[in-house]
Amino acid sequence: MEDYPRGLLALERRFSDDEACRAYLESLRWPDGFVCPRCGMREVWRTKRGLLLCRGCRHQTSVTAGTIFQGSRLPLALWFRAMWLVTSQKNGASALGVQRVLGLGSYQTAWAWLHKLRRAMVRPGRDALSGVVEVDETYLGGVRAGIPGRNVAGKALVLVAAEIADDCIGRIRLTKVTDASAASLVPAVSSMVAAGSVVRTDGWAAYLSLAKQGYQHDIARQSEDLGDDMLPNCHRVASLLKRWLLGTHHGAATRDHLPYYLDEFTFRFNRRTSSSRGKLFYRLAQQAVQVGPVPYRQLINHEMHGQVESSG
């Protein structure tokens, strides 16, 4: 049964202290009850510090160990408010916005929290796209004179895959690729789209080998309905992505961290029709206890020297 707060007031009342937050995370991490990771025993004592002490082997652990919350010195109740802030707003929140709303002492803390939460926005073992799937590339980066065609010099190349159901966009997937060669594009499509699906692309030669990979390859053609825009759904997703990066994050996504921004956009887009913001909070919390810890040093080591600025 999905259990989540229906609004901010409900969140504030229910998760007013860390004890309530730990109990909620336990129910998400061990829905069938705690099992000692060392000996497999289910019987535990609870210490005053909120640790779980196995009655069999005396191994101590906590609900936050091995999760994105590991090592955090700030209250879990504050983390819960950060998750609510991120999921309750249609376009998410910037690090500066999170810092201001939560009263965090530093921008770096808010920045690190958001990057850790982005890593929890991909559900382990999620289903691949299927049915009819449009696939196309888009560039993120300033336009440079003298760089024609599918040349990625100075830009980040992102592959967009969008399910088409009843003439509407279904689920999407986004992934950063090195270049527009078959060696880059075909494996990326295989990682996002289930074999046997209809993959609709433009006539770019790199896609021609998709049929050999078990896909029904459909090359989009110009028509009276579509005109020159032969892959309108991919182009719509790409346009929304660029607008989101500029509007919410002001183009501040570095190239190394870009995949995590793509994960956040995908998380939001695929749940855009959800009638409850609380359910998005639930999904994020559920996945946050399934993702391993990401130390701050690891986050900053991924920083790139340049930024990806979305171009129209």
List keywords for this structure.
5-stranded mixed β-sheet; 312 residues; alpha+beta; 10 strands; 10 helices; globular; disordered C terminus
- The SSE string, one letter per element, is HHEEEHHHEEEHEEHEHHHE
Shape estimate = globular
Please count the beta strands (DSSP E, at least 2 residues each): 10
Low-confidence stretches: 304-312
Q: In percent, how helical is the residue content?
A: 25-40%
Q: What structural category do the secondary elements indicate?
A: alpha+beta
The strands making up the biggest β-sheet line up spatially as 6-5-4-7-8
Largest sheet: 5 strands, mixed
If helices are DSSP runs of H or I spanning 4 or more residues, what is the number of helices?
Answer: 10
Mean pLDDT: 88
Radius of gyration: 22 Å
Distance between the termini: 43 Å
Proportion of beta-strand residues? 15-25%
Please, could you describe this protein's structure?
The strands form three sheets. Strands 6-5-4-7-8 form a five-stranded mixed sheet, with helices on both faces. It has a domain at 132-237. The longest helix is centred in the C-terminal third of the chain and has 16 residues, at 232-247. The chain has ten helices and ten strands. It has 312 residues and is an alpha+beta fold.
Q: What's the layout of helices and strands?
A:
Layout: H1 8-14, H2 18-29, E1 44-46, E2 52-54, E3 60-61, H3 76-88, H4 95-102, H5 107-119, E4 132-140, E5 156-165, E6 168-177, H6 182-192, E7 198-201, E8 216-219, H7 232-247, E9 253-254, H8 258-269, H9 277-288, H10 296-301, E10 307-308
Parallel strand pairs: 4-7, 7-8
Antiparallel strand pairs: 1-2, 2-3, 4-5, 5-6, 9-10
